[in-house]
């Protein structure tokens, strides 16, 4: 059976001499525990700044346009506390998702000494990433923006300027959930504000210039103070208020749809124990698949509790990688390799060392 060019290319990559592990620089010593993780990407930093700006704009409109001018103090206090609490949790989740190591594989550990220390047996392979010179454990993928291999990488999100991976997926899910909630809350308040103001205050703003001038002259002659409406809709003029509310309505609707979809896809990925990249590539590799509830508990940090909604409590502590976690069986190669016959694989292994090192 002849191999197609793709198979032939993969056969060449399997040669240990192709990977040249001796050229890998040994990994640096790990930093102290709690070292901040931050990706220096211009696009990601800009998107993160825009995210904060939009949340702060919503805060400004909700507080200074709708709640503070209102004479209904109970309405203002209750909605102000709820909105600010959700906004604080959203920004806290954003910071945790952005500044948490998503599960980066040690860089440059694909050295000859490390590969030899694994003491691989015939039929076992290790994957080496040629871009960051790292041995890739199962379900790890290389991110071209972070320039690292990330364990259980789902995708790279520019809005949090980070990858969504094993260690920060909980924070990303909370971020999308809280943004969706404040967007929905803002839209509801904007709807009530429009109905209330059109009914109470803004109906008197339609006076013509002549009518307004005559009213001023009449009040000046009678030396009486102008009557003030019992309900103040905003400290801004009605046209300015309308523009601010329309912009907030557009922002809230856009982010409600976007974050709701992202929240749904992330929850689905957690429950099915399949990342977005795995869903796209459909790599059916033989691995232990956890039950949906177990996967949820590991992502959010233990049994169901209020800490699931707390961005300051982390997920379950990831277990340190052991030697066997770096090793995979030859049967776990991609589907394209599975088209080769057993006889061909046997013949190929005769020309290779007893240990296979596969570039991926």
From TrEMBL:
Region span, Disordered: 327-360
PROSITE patterns reported in the protein's UniProt record: DHHC (PS50216)
Keywords: Acyltransferase, Membrane, Transferase, Transmembrane, Transmembrane helix
EC number: 2.3.1.225
Topology relative to the membrane: Multi-pass membrane protein
Signal peptide start-end: none
Reaction(s) this enzyme catalyzes, per UniProt: L-cysteinyl-[protein] + hexadecanoyl-CoA = S-hexadecanoyl-L-cysteinyl-[protein] + CoA
Segments crossing the lipid bilayer: 45-67, 73-92, 171-195, 242-263
GO CC, one annotated term: membrane
Chief place where the protein resides: membrane
Family: Belongs to the DHHC palmitoyltransferase family.
Entry remark concerning the domains of this protein: The DHHC domain is required for palmitoyltransferase activity.
Protein name per Swiss-Prot or TrEMBL: Palmitoyltransferase
Native species: Neomonachus schauinslandi (Hawaiian monk seal)
């Amino acid at each position: 059976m002849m191999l197609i060019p793709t198979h032939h290319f993969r056969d060449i990559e399997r040669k240990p001499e192709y990977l040249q592990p001796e050229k890998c620089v040994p990994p640096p010593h790990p930093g102290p525990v709690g070292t901040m993780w931050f990706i220096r990407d211009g696009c990601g930093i800009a998107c993160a700044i825009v995210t904060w700006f939009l949340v702060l704009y919503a805060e400004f409109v909700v507080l200074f346009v709708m709640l503070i001018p209102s004479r209904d103090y109970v309405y203002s206090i209750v909605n102000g506390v709820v909105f600010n609490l959700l906004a604080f949790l959203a920004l806290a989740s954003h910071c945790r998702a952005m500044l948490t190591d998503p599960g980066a594989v040690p860089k440059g550990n694909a050295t000859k000494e490390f590969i030899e220390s694994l003491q691989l047996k015939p039929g076992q392979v290790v994957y080496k990433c040629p871009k960051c010179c790292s041995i890739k454990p199962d379900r790890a993928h290389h991110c071209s923006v972070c320039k690292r291999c990330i364990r259980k990488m789902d995708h790279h999100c520019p809005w949090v300027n980070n990858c969504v991976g094993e260690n920060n997926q909980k924070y990303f899910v909370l971020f999308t959930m809280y943004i969706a909630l404040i967007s929905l809350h803002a839209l509801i308040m904007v709807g009530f504000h429009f109905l209330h103001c059109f009914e109470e205050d803004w109906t008197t703003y339609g006076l013509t210039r002549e009518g307004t001038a005559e009213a001023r002259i009449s009040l000046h002659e009678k030396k009486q103070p102008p009557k003030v409406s019992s309900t103040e809709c905003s400290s801004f003029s009605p046209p300015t208020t309308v523009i601010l509310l329309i912009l907030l309505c557009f922002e809230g609707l856009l982010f409600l749809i976007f974050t709701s979809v992202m929240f749904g896809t992330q929850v689905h990925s957690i429950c099915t124990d399949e990342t977005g990249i795995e869903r796209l590539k459909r790599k059916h590799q033989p691995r232990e698949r956890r039950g949906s509830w177990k996967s949820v508990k590991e992502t959010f940090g233990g049994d169901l509790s209020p800490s699931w909604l707390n961005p300051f409590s982390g997920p379950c502590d990831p277990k340190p990688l052991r030697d066997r976690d770096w090793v995979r069986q030859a049967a776990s190669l991609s589907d394209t390799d599975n088209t080769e016959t057993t006889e061909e694989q046997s013949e190929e292994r005769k020309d290779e060392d007893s240990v296979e090192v596969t570039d991926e």
